[in-house]
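Researcher: For the annotation table, I need structure tokens for Transcriptional regulator. Please keep the output clean. Sequence:
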Amino acid sequence: LPMIEIIIDEAALRRVIGGEDIMREQLLHLVECARRRNVTLLVLPLDAGMYGEYAGARGAMTLVETSAHEHLVYLEPQDESLLISDPAKVSTYAQRYAKIRSQALGPRESLDLIKRLAGVAE
């Protein structure tokens, strides 16, 4: 199984889209996904970057390592998609990802937050 690490901004977890029931189902689905052995789910808290740069401010990105160990970055800005393979550019995005990850909650804290938002009792 491929290893998957996802960082979700807390604002996306709190923004109700489609109604309360749909939002709760989506949050519970994230809880189930986070229980998979190949998935790490982290939440970037609302106060991330409060005392410095908010590394997630530049939008979403997907970092990929292929089976041939090639490193790529996939972006979807506005109405297009970009696949970046230039090692220098990939390195810049990897550094940004590391900064975002350093500002995120740990896996247990992230899961606890998602459960709380879904209204799941511990």
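Researcher: And a one-line annotation?
Model: The longest strand covers residues 4-9.
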